[in-house]
Specification:
With 171 residues, this protein is an alpha+beta fold. Helix content is 25%, strand content 36%.
């Protein structure tokens, strides 16, 4: 897939295990906006060291967006039950905010999940990521009462969001 926005061409491709360092850098860049939120390379985020293999092992899919050889975005999804899938990760370089790329990436995961029989797509998002929550709600996800604590270095507590997928829905 090629995404063309704001007179620049960005290429989307499957995530690779060799993207590990670039993934860590992207997520560290995103977390810099939030005091006390850190990447745990050897802890909760260790799956990024070989993220493509991790996703393959659970039947998932991951895509990255590159611009001029730099990794600028990540999206991934995976099944978690027979008809239930999860939007596992969505990270976007700050320079791409408002460009429409996040909407396109979520649409890719929605389409992929639906094509694999999903009727529900869920995600979890840190309670501090309010801008992301507004985005998810615009994309049709509904915040649930459920929360979970990750017991990580960032003291993360996450909200659950759920989107019901219709077979004739386009996004």
């Amino acid at each position: 897939m090629v995404i063309k926005m704001k007179s620049e061409t960005r290429h989307t491709r499957p995530v690779l295990d060799t993207d590990a360092e670039a993934l860590f850098q992207l997520i560290e860049h995103c977390y810099a906006d939030y005091e006390g939120v850190v990447v745990e390379r050897d802890g909760i985020d260790a799956d990024l060291n070989r993220y493509a293999s991790v996703l393959t092992g659970i039947g998932g899919q991951g895509l990255v967006v590159e611009n001029a050889g730099k990794l600028m975005a990540l999206v991934s999804g995976a099944p978690i039950a027979e008809n239930k899938y999860q939007l596992k990760k969505l990270y976007l370089h700050n320079s791409l905010r408002g460009s429409g790329i996040a909407t396109e990436l979520v649409a890719e995961v929605v389409s992929w999940a639906r094509n694999h029989g999903a009727s529900t797509l869920e995600l979890w998002s840190d309670t501090r990521f309010e801008r992301a929550h507004r985005f998810y709600e615009r994309e049709g996800f509904v915040r649930q009462k459920s929360t979970r604590e990750l017991h990580d270095l960032s003291n993360s507590v996450e909200f659950q969001f759920v989107k019901q997928l219709q077979s004739n829905e386009t996004t």
